[in-house]
Specification:
This protein has 401 residues and is of the alpha+beta class. It has two domains: 258 residues, Rossmann fold (3-Layer(aba) Sandwich), CATH 3.40.50; 129 residues, Jelly Rolls (Sandwich). The protein is built from eleven helices and 16 strands.
Length: 401
C-alpha cells in the first residue's frame, strides 16, 4: 500500500506546475484498483501496455465510457494527457469525437469545434428531446440535425490524421459532405464500414472544415466523427460520454453502437455508468436490474473482444434532483456493492471512487474544497483533473510501471 501512495504522489509531482496537492480528506489508500475476482484479464492488458514501450508499432486501446463526468471531458482528458506525457508511450489516434457546438452542449475543448448555420441537437440519453428525423445514434450517443443551406462545421485536434469518417446520413443519396483541408476540397464517399462518409487526405492534417451544401428541403444528421492517422499503433484513450447516460443508453437506443464499437477494439474498458441509473429514492433502485443492464454492455464488448479487461468506477458520493431541489443520493453504497459483484463475475477491477472520496456524505468536503460544483453531483475542473491523476496512478501502479 505504501507503493500505491508513493506512486500517486510521484504522478502528481511529474505533472505540470498546475498539479494540485491531494487533500487530506481524500482516502489515498482506497485509490488503488481492487480485484474481488481474478486479475488475469488485467494482467493481459498490463502485458500489452508494457510491450508497447518496446514495440511502438503495436497498439493498446482504452475506452472510457460514462455520463456527464465523461462528456465534460476533464476527467478522461487528464488520464489521456498523463499517458501521453508521463508514461513514455507512443500516442495513437484520438478516437471518436463529436462536434459538440452543433448540439449546443458542453465539452472540455481538448479539441476545437465550430458551427455555422442553424443546428438542433439531441442525446440518446434523453428520449423526450426529439429531432425532426429519428437519428441513428452510435457510440457517441449524440446527434445534430440541420436543414440550413449554409450549415457547416469545423474541427481541429492535437493529433494529425489522414482520414476522416463522418458518421451520419442525409435526406437523400445526393446529400454528401465536402471536406476542406488547406487548399484541398474533397467530396466524401460513402463509408463501407460505418453508416456515414469518408474523406482521405493527400497529406496529414489537424483541422478541417466540413461543408454540407444542402439544397432547400434537404437535411443532414451528424452522429460523430472518427479522425484516423492510418498508422494504427500507439496508445489510444477513447472517451465517449453522454450527459444523463444510463446503462441502457447504448444498448437500447443506439442502433449503430455495435458497428462503431467494432472499430474501437478496446483492450481495457473503464466503465463509469451508474450515477444516473441510481438518481432515485432507494426504494426505486433495483440493483439486480442495474446489473442485468450492465451485463448487456459487458457481453456486447466481450463478443467483439473476448480478452478485454474491465475497470468499474463506482458512483461518487452525490446529491440528486428531487422536485426541483437537491437531496442526498443514498444509493451510493448499493451501487458500490453491485459493481464489486460485477467485477467478481467478470474478473474485472473496481476503482472505488465512493470510498476514495470519503464515503457517505463526503461530497460536502469536496464542495468546500472547491473540487465539486454546488450541485454536489458534478466536479469542478480541478476535481475532475485530480480524479484523472488518481485513476492514471492506479492503472500504472497495477501494471507495475
Amino acid at each position: 500500500m505504501k507503493r500505491v501512495i508513493a506512486t500517486f504522489f510521484f504522478v502528481l509531482l511529474c505533472l505540470c506546475s498546475s498539479a494540485q496537492e491531494i487533500p487530506s480528506f481524500v482516502k489515498a489508500d482506497s485509490a488503488a484498483l481492487r480485484f474481488p475476482g481474478s486479475r488475469e484479464r488485467f494482467a493481459r492488458f498490463a502485458s500489452r501496455l508494457k510491450r508497447l514501450k518496446d514495440c511502438p508499432d503495436s497498439s493498446v486501446t482504452i475506452w472510457h465510457v460514462g455520463g456527464s463526468h465523461v462528456q465534460a471531458g476533464w476527467f478522461p482528458s487528464r488520464v489521456r494527457h498523463n499517458f501521453d506525457s508521463l508514461g513514455h508511450y507512443p500516442s495513437g489516434d484520438r478516437g471518436y469525437i463529436f462536434p459538440y457546438p452543433l448540439a449546443k452542449t458542453n465539452w472540455d475543448h481538448s479539441f476545437s469545434a465550430s458551427r455555422e448555420g442553424e443546428w438542433e441537437g439531441s442525446r440518446s440519453s434523453n428520449p423526450n428531446r426529439k429531432l425532426p428525423v429519428k437519428p441513428d445514434y452510435g457510440i457517441t450517443g449524440i446527434a445534430a440535425y440541420t436543414a440550413d443551406t449554409t450549415a457547416a462545421f469545423g474541427i481541429g485536434t492535437p493529433y494529425f490524421f489522414t482520414r476522416l469518417r463522418i458518421l451520419g446520413s442525409g435526406s437523400t443519396d445526393e446529400v454528401v459532405p465536402y471536406v476542406v483541408a488547406g487548399s484541398d476540397t474533397l467530396k466524401c464517399r460513402p463509408d463501407t464500414l460505418l453508416r456515414g462518409f469518408v474523406a482521405d487526405f493527400p497529406r496529414p492534417v489537424d483541422s478541417v472544415r466540413v461543408e454540407l451544401r444542402l439544397k432547400e428541403g434537404s437535411f443532414f444528421t451528424v452522429t460523430g466523427l472518427l479522425p484516423e492517422s492510418g498508422e494504427g499503433g500507439g496508445l489510444r484513450y477513447v472517451s465517449t460520454g453522454v450527459n444523463g447516460a444510463r446503462t441502457t443508453t447504448w444498448t437500447g437506443r443506439c442502433p449503430e453502437f455495435s458497428r462503431e464499437l467494432s472499430l474501437v477494439k478496446p483492450d481495457l474498458v473503464v466503465w463509469g455508468l451508474g450515477i444516473n441509473d441510481s438518481a432515485c429514492p432507494p426504494k426505486d433502485f433495483d440493483p439486480e436490474r442495474f446489473k442485468r443492464n450492465y451485463r448487456r454492455l459487458l457481453d456486447q464488448v466481450l463478443s467483439l473482444r473476448p480478452n478485454c479487461a474491465f475497470v468499474f468506477v463506482t458512483n461518487n458520493d452525490s446529491w440528486r434532483y428531487a422536485r426541483r431541489r437537491m437531496v442526498h443520493n443514498d444509493n451510493g453504497p448499493t451501487v458500490q456493492k453491485a459493481m464489486y459483484e460485477l467485477a467478481e463475475e467478470y474478473d474485472g477491477a473496481v476503482w472505488d471512487l465512493f470510498s476514495l472520496m470519503g464515503g457517505f456524505g463526503s461530497a460536502d468536503q469536496w464542495l468546500n474544497a472547491e473540487l465539486m460544483k454546488p450541485d454536489r453531483l458534478h466536479f469542478t475542473r480541478e476535481g475532475y483533473e485530480l480524479l484523472g491523476d488518481l485513476l492514471y496512478a492506479a492503472l500504472i501502479n497495477e501494471c507495475g510501471e
